[in-house]
């Protein structure tokens, strides 16, 4: 462990909560160099929806590399890119009647967000982008400007401009449908808000605390965008690729965003890969106007294609996710109900779930106890008050039961400690 402390930057974070050296991984399990096996209910912050080293995806990658096929291609044509585009069109876009052009903006989610923001401003000729309380869209400057977390924003070192923050669904305790605040401000000539280029939103805020927007709120938000000629951007980087059940998290709300950002689990096995999807009339880029060296990473084309062919030919994968989500929701509600003294609430959609603690320190203590007992989890929310569940979507029922048992025990331990401290 010494070399990490001596050489690596202090910016590292996850390793501080999981102080071990990981080596191998398969499915929902990851092992360290001491030979200990952990259940992984974090899944690379949602980058491993199909688990670690899924055999069908790994086999496709190994076969591609063994034949000395191209790896780095900038944005030149390749057989790997062609096959990905054909598969994405036929298995994802066409069955959902979605007509999008596909842009490869760079390797990571923030690349997809930066391209979306830049395109919205170029197309509309306007500057402001509306985002929402507790939203998270990345750590580069444009993405940070539309991110809510003050700690992350504070690292920018410069003013974060050309953005306006509005209340997310239920931020105002449901007193008024929150999208109406945006409508009223847009219609008020004294509000001081110039007509925005776009709105960017997550249907479920992962880093923000597993906050779930209702279908009604999303439809209302889309309607406001249409009324005022603003582009509607959905950031599906963490909640896409089946995390909430359907491939896109916005499908069940019956909305059609103008621009969609995808990354994380898109490659199928944790390789860097991102897309910015846009309605065809929005594709106003000049050749080379937005580019990047690593936007043609052929191994990710290969693994993404294999993931789509393995999981998205039918609706059965969505049905499996829905069934697992229903079971997990019931378990978490039971855990919360078992400890009224901790004032725990539950949130979530699909296999993005959260236990929300009235005292934020309890969430961190639960994650620490879980790690000690062989389960990887993390916190989220403005005050790290939420224990976040992002298990691989391929987790077996036996593994879910094992993980839920560890969480149940961890919560009981924290409750016991809290009671002892209160009575001391």
From TrEMBL:
<protein>
    <recommendedName>
        <fullName>Diaminobutyrate--2-oxoglutarate transaminase</fullName>
        <ecNumber>2.6.1.76</ecNumber>
    </recommendedName>
</protein>
<dbReference type="GO" id="GO:0019491">
    <property type="term" value="P:ectoine biosynthetic process"/>
</dbReference>
<dbReference type="InterPro" id="IPR004637">
    <property type="entry name" value="Dat"/>
</dbReference>
<dbReference type="InterPro" id="IPR015421">
    <property type="entry name" value="PyrdxlP-dep_Trfase_major"/>
</dbReference>
<dbReference type="Pfam" id="PF00202">
    <property type="entry name" value="Aminotran_3"/>
</dbReference>
<dbReference type="InterPro" id="IPR049704">
    <property type="entry name" value="Aminotrans_3_PPA_site"/>
</dbReference>
<dbReference type="InterPro" id="IPR005814">
    <property type="entry name" value="Aminotrans_3"/>
</dbReference>
<comment type="similarity">
    <text>Belongs to the class-III pyridoxal-phosphate-dependent aminotransferase family.</text>
</comment>
<dbReference type="InterPro" id="IPR012773">
    <property type="entry name" value="Ectoine_EctB"/>
</dbReference>
<dbReference type="GO" id="GO:0030170">
    <property type="term" value="F:pyridoxal phosphate binding"/>
</dbReference>
<dbReference type="GO" id="GO:0045303">
    <property type="term" value="F:diaminobutyrate-2-oxoglutarate transaminase activity"/>
</dbReference>
<dbReference type="InterPro" id="IPR015422">
    <property type="entry name" value="PyrdxlP-dep_Trfase_small"/>
</dbReference>
<dbReference type="InterPro" id="IPR015424">
    <property type="entry name" value="PyrdxlP-dep_Trfase"/>
</dbReference>
<keyword id="KW-0663">Pyridoxal phosphate</keyword>
<comment type="pathway">
    <text>Amine and polyamine biosynthesis; ectoine biosynthesis; L-ectoine from L-aspartate 4-semialdehyde: step 1/3.</text>
</comment>
<keyword id="KW-0808">Transferase</keyword>
<keyword id="KW-0032">Aminotransferase</keyword>
<dbReference type="GO" id="GO:0047307">
    <property type="term" value="F:diaminobutyrate-pyruvate transaminase activity"/>
</dbReference>
């Amino acid at each position: 462990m010494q070399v990490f402390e001596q050489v690596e930057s202090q910016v590292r974070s996850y390793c501080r909560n999981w102080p071990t050296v990981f080596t191998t991984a398969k499915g929902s399990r990851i092992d360290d160099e001491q030979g200990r096996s952990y259940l992984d209910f974090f899944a690379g912050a949602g980058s491993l929806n199909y688990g670690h080293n899924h055999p069908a995806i790994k086999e496709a990658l190994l076969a591609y590399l063994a034949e000395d096929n191209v790896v780095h291609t900038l944005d030149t044509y390749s057989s790997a890119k062609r096959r990905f585009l054909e598969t994405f069109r036929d298995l994802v876009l066409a069955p959902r009647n979605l007509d999008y052009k596909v842009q490869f903006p760079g390797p990571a989610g923030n690349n997809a967000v930066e391209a979306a923001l830049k395109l919205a401003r170029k197309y509309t000729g306007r500057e402001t982008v509306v985002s929402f309380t507790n939203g998270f869209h990345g750590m580069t400057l444009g993405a940070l400007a539309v991110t809510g977390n003050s700690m992350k924003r504070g690292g920018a070192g410069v003013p974060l401009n050309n953005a306006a923050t509005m209340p997310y669904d239920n931020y105002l305790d449901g007193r008024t449908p929150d999208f109406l605040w945006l409508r009223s401000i847009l219609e008020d000539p004294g509000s001081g808000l110039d007509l925005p280029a776009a709105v960017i939103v997550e249907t479920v805020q992962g880093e923000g605390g597993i906050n779930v927007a209702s279908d009604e709120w999303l439809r209302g938000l889309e309607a406001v965008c249409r009324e005022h000629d603003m582009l509607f951007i959905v950031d599906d980087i963490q909640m896409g690729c089946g995390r909430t059940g359907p491939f896109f998290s916005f499908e069940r709300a019956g909305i059609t965003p103008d621009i969609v950002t995808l990354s994380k689990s898109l490659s199928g096995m944790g390789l860097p890969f991102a897309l910015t999807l846009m309605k065809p009339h929005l594709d106003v880029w000049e050749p080379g106007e937005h580019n990047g060296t690593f936007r043609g990473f052929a191994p990710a084309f290969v693994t993404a294609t294999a993931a789509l062919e393995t999981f998205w030919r039918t609706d059965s994968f969505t049905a499996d996710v829905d069934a697992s989500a229903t079971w997990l929701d019931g378990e978490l509600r039971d855990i919360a109900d078992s400890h009224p003294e901790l004032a725990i609430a539950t949130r979530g959609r699909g296999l993005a779930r959260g236990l929300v603690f009235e005292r934020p320190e309890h969430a961190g203590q639960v994650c620490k106890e879980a790690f000690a007992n062989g389960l990887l989890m993390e916190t989220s929310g403005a005050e790290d008050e939420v224990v976040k569940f992002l298990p691989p979507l391929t987790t077996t029922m036996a593994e879910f039961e094992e993980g839920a048992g560890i969480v149940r025990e961890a919560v009981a331990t924290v409750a016991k400690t809290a009671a002892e401290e209160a009575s001391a």
